[in-house]
């Protein structure tokens, strides 16, 4: 009896497995098809149409539509082919299936009607993600940007939008524009917009989590006083702002590339990662600005392309980076500033809880410079939490050696010191100089690379 039952179960499993093997992709529920197709690039999805006559139009269920003309030259015929392809795909796609539309191509004002029709498709399909990465065909000096057609959007389509990327666009929102209430991500690049329109738009994006502004030149201050409680990631790159101010209490990441400007993020007490890249600055002024604007950050990457260091007495700054744990410095030191490397100590003294330190000296041409202040000019200051230090760009300058010795002598918990060199001669020089560190910390692990 038991054998018969086992035999029947085995037969049922065999039949079931055969049925599963006969299931075709087109027999799967539409939502399952969409999930599978969403994992593939649109180009690969379209290619499946040649595999079977029954698969000819499966690609119309693809939820993510991405069009990139990067491989097409600027020839009019090629551009016409690209536009025709986009129009054909959008005409055949199911609007209730598509969730994202991304288009990247060279823009000219004569193509505005085509872009308008694609915006209309996005609005009627109630898309969640819209990206129009446009660029001028005839060079970056042109200023005839695409005027974004707010009039093609209704309240329903605006409410559906969760991510917007716009490049080389002019934004002129209508009077009393209510904003994008459910927008999570906004990426604006080379966008022409007035200060008031930008501030009003950002203030109305109450649920925004990720914001990036790249080469958006207001030549004025950007001040968003409305609390953005959900904003976690903020990037401001190469924008001509005279001042930046946001009220974002839950901000986690801040990235800034540009000139030294006042940055006010005093409400952002949860800042974790901060990356600051300045074109040019006086070192002491830059450090003071960071202390005033970003006192709560935990991890800092700091880079100044053209760095100046003013000669003045070293002193302890009363203000502190009281939460900073990890510090990464990229220092472009010129020959004339080789004797000022020890002024980095003023930065370290403002980081009482620092645990890891990385300093990259872009100091080509300094050679074995033997000038400048020594540790005897410095008062002792204990970096009690520092466990790891890494020095890159070692060229044998006395300031570098003195700085390394100062760190080791004042960091009782230091476990690892790593020094990167570029030549055998520098490797031997570093090994001889850094060996002095063992006298102060016999258990310290030293790596000369």
TrEMBL record:
PROSITE patterns: FBOX. Gene3D superfamilies: Ribonuclease Inhibitor (3.80.10.10). Residues 22-70 form the F-box domain. PANTHER family: F-BOX DOMAIN-CONTAINING PROTEIN, OS02G0105600 PROTEIN. This is F-box domain-containing protein. It comes from Urochloa decumbens.
């Amino acid at each position: 009896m038991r054998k018969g039952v086992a035999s029947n179960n085995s037969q049922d499993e065999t039949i079931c497995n055969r049925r599963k093997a006969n299931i075709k992709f087109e027999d799967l529920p539409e939502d399952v098809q969409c999930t599978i197709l969403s994992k593939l690039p649109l180009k690969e999805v379209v290619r499946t149409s040649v595999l079977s006559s029954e698969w000819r139009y499966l690609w119309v269920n693809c939820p993510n539509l991405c069009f990139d003309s990067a491989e097409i030259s600027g020839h009019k015929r090629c551009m016409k082919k690209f536009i025709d392809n986009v129009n054909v795909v959008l005409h055949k796609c199911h609007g209730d299936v598509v969730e994202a539309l991304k288009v990247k191509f060279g823009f000219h004002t004569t193509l505005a009607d085509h872009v308008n029709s694609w915006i209309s498709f996005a609005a009627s399909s109630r898309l969640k993600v819209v990206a129009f990465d446009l660029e001028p065909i005839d060079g970056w000096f042109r200023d005839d940007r695409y005027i974004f057609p707010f009039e093609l959007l209704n309240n329903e389509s605006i409410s559906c939008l969760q991510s917007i990327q716009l490049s080389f666009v002019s934004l002129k929102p209508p009077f009393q524009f209510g904003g994008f209430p459910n927008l999570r991500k906004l990426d604006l690049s080379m966008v022409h917009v007035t200060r008031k329109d930008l501030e009003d738009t950002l203030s109305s994006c109450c649920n925004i989590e990720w914001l990036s502004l790249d080469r958006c030149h207001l030549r004025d201050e950007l001040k968003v006083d409305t609390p953005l409680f959900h904003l976690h990631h903020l990037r401001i790159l190469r924008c001509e702002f005279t001042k930046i101010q946001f009220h974002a209490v839950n901000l986690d990441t801040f990235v800034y590339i540009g000139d030294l400007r006042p940055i006010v993020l005093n409400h952002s007490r949860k800042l974790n990662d901060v990356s600051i890249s300045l074109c040019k600055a006086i070192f002491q002024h830059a450090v003071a600005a960071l202390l005033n604007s970003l006192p709560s950050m935990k991890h800092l990457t700091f880079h100044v392309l053209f760095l100046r260091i003013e000669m003045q007495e070293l002193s302890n700054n009363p203000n502190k980076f009281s939460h900073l744990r990890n510090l990464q410095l990229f220092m472009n030191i010129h020959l004339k500033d080789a004797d000022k490397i020890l002024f980095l100590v003023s930065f370290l003294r403002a980081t009482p809880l620092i645990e890891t330190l990385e300093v990259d000296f872009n100091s080509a041409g300094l050679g074995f410079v033997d000038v400048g202040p020594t540790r005897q000019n410095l008062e002792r200051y204990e970096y009690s939490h520092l466990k790891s230090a890494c020095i890159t760009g070692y060229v044998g300058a006395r300031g570098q050696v003195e700085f390394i010795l100062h760190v080791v002598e004042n960091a009782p918990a230091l476990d690892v010191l790593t020094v990167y060199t570029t030549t055998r001669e520098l490797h031997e020089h570093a090994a001889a100089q850094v060996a002095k560190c063992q006298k102060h910390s016999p258990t310290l692990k030293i790596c000369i690379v």
